[in-house]
Amino acid sequence: MKPVDINQETTLLLNQGWIPVHVMTARACFYQFSRNHVYALDCASMQFDFASWMGGFKSQDDDTVHSPTLHRDHPVFRSAHDVWPLPTIVVTKSRFYVKPPPARKYERLTLRDLCRKKRNKCQLCGKVFHPDNLTIEHVLPRALGGTDAPDNLTLSCRWCNQRKAAMHPVNDYQGRELEGVGPIYRYLEIRDSIMREEWDKHLIIKKDQP
Ligand SMILES: [Zn+2]
To answer: Which of 27, 54, 166, 193 has its CA 20 to 30 A from that of 35?
Structure first.
């Protein structure tokens, strides 16, 4: 649990189509959530309205009460008498945000993008490195005609990068054939300092999805 200031940006807002539109402050999230303008997604992507987030809800199949599963570093908001976990992802019920913001142009992946996506883990040896020691790895080497498209790019440490050189195919640290990160399309730019791991799957969207 991580106590947060009311002005801290804590919560990713998705529109009705689950497309990210905005990052909300703790204050805005609490305001919208307590008025049931948005519903929350917990750790397991289960949906909660304000009352069930606070008190759990009864399953229709049996009498089990479901409470939200929280993240280890879950932001909490302290009011005078209480501590409230703030949802880190909410979905609007309003039609106001139906349209996603204008789609950005297809962006070329940077080393930073790849480090974020792969959590600084070399995809060849599986070890975690400081970004200074990581490089963009071409699955099919450029020397063999590989491109800079995201489905040909992944992350490796400098040492593995040298060892791999122009070899193809190569297995990754899980023993599977090394793969690129796939076509991605990003709608929101979010500062690293407020970025949360559970937002990734919403922010990086395959191009063929809506
Ligand atoms: Zn490596």
So the answer is: 193
* Exposure of 87 in the CB half-sphere (CA atoms within 13 A): 35
Six-digit token pair at 41? 């997604």
Q: How far is the CA of 42 from the centre of ligand 1 (A)?
A: 34
Q: How far is the CA of 91 from the centre of ligand 1 (A)?
A: 38
CATH of 111-185, one of 2.40.420.20, 1.10.30.50, 3.40.640.10, 1.20.120.230: 1.10.30.50
Buried-exposed string 51-78: b where 16+ CB fall within 10 A, e elsewhere: ebbeeebeeeeeeeeeebebeeebbbbe
User: Contact, 38 vs 32, CB < 8 A?
Assistant: yes
Reported as a single tens digit per residue, the pLDDT across 1-59 is: 889 999 999 999 998 888 888 899 999 999 999 999 999 999 999 999 999 998 877 77
| Distance from C-alpha of 196 to C-alpha of 30, rounded to nearest angstrom | 18
